[in-house]
Fold:
Amino acid sequence: MDPVNISCSLGQVTQTLLPFKNPLDHPITVSCKLLERNKIEHKDSLFELLIGEELITVTERGVLELPFTFRPLNMVQAAAYIVVEIVEEGSEVDGVKWQFPVKGTPVFNVSKGYQLPVTSCKSKQRKESFMEIILDANSVKPTQSVKYTEAAISERPCELKEGWKKKESEQEFTFSLDETNLLTLQHCSTSHISPPGLSLITFTLVFAPGKPVKKTVNLTVDSTEGGRWIYPFTIHSTPAEPDDTIIIRASGLHKDSVVGIRLNSLDNSSIPYEAYLDKGSDPDFRVYPLQVSCCLSELREH
Structure:
């Protein structure tokens, strides 16, 4: 059975529902309890089932929604089981159990004072940078308590704070971006920094915008132990430089002058395009055709 997945920011509490459907053609009386794997490591419960110990009757083919909470205390994945058991003494189905696995993912979000790193260039250009993030996988303390940049984008790797040393780390992480059309991310290295015992992860980040854009992108880092860190940053591209300058010489007053522009497709198939004049262009200019799909085309402007 696939587990019920729930995520929550470190130190916060979130609530969700587990739906239990009675598969039988008659009502059943059940008890519900939660078995927590992490109870041995923590004095406090990470999960809590928000129903009492009283028996509950579920109608035939009915659905019982079981509310429970998750409160992560460190950056390690938590696990539990919600057990539903039929309690009908003397019945053939007495003692039948259903066991539902639950997995909780702690999420570390940056603080309000976090300054978003920025990568920027002009449209139709390619910008390659180094992106470095720092995280604390072994403590519940936020990394903001450490005076070091949580995430940085620069032309070359940043220098470590004085007194800090790094060595190759054996910790494993996976990475993902919520924007893959404009960005390419490649992992370079994962290092352990001592003191104060942090992880430094370095990437190469390639930004290749085709048109002006400004948006916030999230880099998500997941550890094999179940913790998740989210680092937002900004991408910004300005209008591209003109590809060419077109000079049209007038043929005379009230006469059209025409200039053709040849566009070659870089693809073997037909590519649709749209041609238009920017807002604010002089009304004496027109461009046609406005829309066409072909491998080799010619625009005319007059």
About this structure: Residues 141-148 have pLDDT under 50 and may be disordered. The radius of gyration is 30 Å.
